[in-house]
Please model this.
Amino acid sequence: MSCIISYTFMANLITIVRVILLFVGIGFIYSHNIYGEILAFAIVIIVIIMDWIDGYVARRRGNTTPFGAVLDIMGDRIVESSLWIVFAHIHLIPVWVPIVVIVRGVITDSLRSVALTKGKTPFGEKTMIKTAVGRLIVSSRLSRALYGSAKVVTFCYLILYLAYIEGLKASPALFTPDWQASLYGAGMTLVYITVFMCVVRAVPVITDSIEYFR
Model:
C-alpha cells in the first residue's frame, strides 16, 4: 500500500514540478536574445520528458487514479495553453489559435468532470469514450502519441524559430534572412495541423457525453 501511495505521489509531484518549470521556460522566451531562446527550448524539452516520466511512474504498478488522471490533464492544459498564449502574445501566431485550443479544452474538461461523477475517467479501463472509433481518436496510444508529437514538434520548432529571429537581429551575416519566409511558413503549417488534431480529438468526447445529461 505504501509503495502505491509513493508512486502516485511521485507522479503527481512530477506534474506539479513540470508546470513550475514551464513558467521558467516562458520567462526565457521573453528574454529576446538567442541564448535565452535556446534555454527556453531546452527547458521545454525537459518539461516534455517529465510528462513522459509522469505517465511511466503512474503506470509502473498499474496504480493510476482518477485524481492523477485529472491532474495530468490539468498539467497538459496549462503547458499547452500557456505556450499558445505566449506565441500569440509575441505575434508569432494568430490569436484565434489559443482561443480555439482553450475553448476546446474548457468544453472537453467540463464534460470529463461530469463523467467523473459517474465513475468514468478520461482514459484507461474506465474511459468515458464508448465507441471503438472514439477510443481510437481520443484515447488510443496511437492517437495520443501522434497528437503529443505534433504539439512537441510545433512548440519546439516555434521556439527555435524565435532563436533564429534573434540570431538574425544579432548577426545578420550568420543567419540569412532568405530563409525567414520559408521557415515561418513551415511553422504555421505545423500550427494548423496541430490545431486540427486538437479539434478532431474533441468530437468523440462531446458526442459520448450526451448520455450524462439525459
Residues 141-170 form the longest helix (30 residues). Residues 43 and 63 are 28 Å apart (CA to CA). The chain has a mean pLDDT of 83.
